[in-house]
Amino acid sequence: MDESALAFVGRWLRHPRRTGAIVPSSRDLARTIADGLDRDDYTTILELGAGTGSVTRALARRFGAERVVALELSPALARQARRRNPGVTVIEGCATRVESLLDRYDCDRLAMVSCLPLLSLPALRRSLLDVAARRVGSKGCFVQFTYSPWSPFPANEYRTLGLRAERTGRAWRNVPPASVWRLTREAHASRDAELRPTA
């Protein structure tokens, strides 16, 4: 196990709910996330929860390092992500303060890519969805991967914000297998969204 994986496992042992997985995202999942975003649609990619930087690297390869901004709470993981992804802006900080970053970027064509375990952090999920609905423009999106077979976004939360969800890909070779979902403004989303059942 390399140094980055060891650092990730160490963080999972200390903060399992905030880390979400015991190993970093695979290259297969990272590529699935990046390939689900059109190169020409977004001026800035803001990654939340960069970890050791595996998804960051795939985003930088697809869009160019200068268009990727990665936010990571752990100083140790942020250093690893920065070292592995030269040219990417890696910021140490908490996703609860993401809105303060948005004034620096063109939010109309912003893709927010979350690698955070939002299913286990419902308050943070609701907060981020609210930020996305208010600040991300009509050409932007919010992306989240999940190990669940259903959407990671409860329909009652995003529909009230005028957003729609669609699955953009699956990473079968990830451990465990994962799906990637995208939220967009309702007028720009696919009509074939697969929604998580609500009670």
Layout: helices, strands, pairs:
Layout: H1 3-14, H2 16-19, H3 27-35, E1 44-48, H4 54-63, E2 68-72, H5 75-84, E3 89-92, H6 99-102, E4 110-114, H7 122-135, E5 141-146, H8 155-159, E6 163-171, E7 178-185
Parallel strand pairs: 1-2, 1-4, 2-3, 4-5
Antiparallel strand pairs: 5-7, 6-7
In short:
It contains 8 helices and 7 strands, in the order αααβαβαβαβαβαββ.
Could you explain the architecture of this structure?
The protein has 199 residues and is α/β, with parallel strands linked by helices. The protein has one domain: 3-Layer(aba) Sandwich (Rossmann fold). 34% of the residues lie in helices and 21% in strands. It has eight helices and seven strands. The protein has a seven-stranded mixed sheet with strand order 3-2-1-4-5-7-6, sandwiched between helices. Helix 5 links the parallel strand 2 and strand 3. The radius of gyration is 15 Å and the shape is globular. It starts with a helix and ends in a 14-residue tail after the last strand.
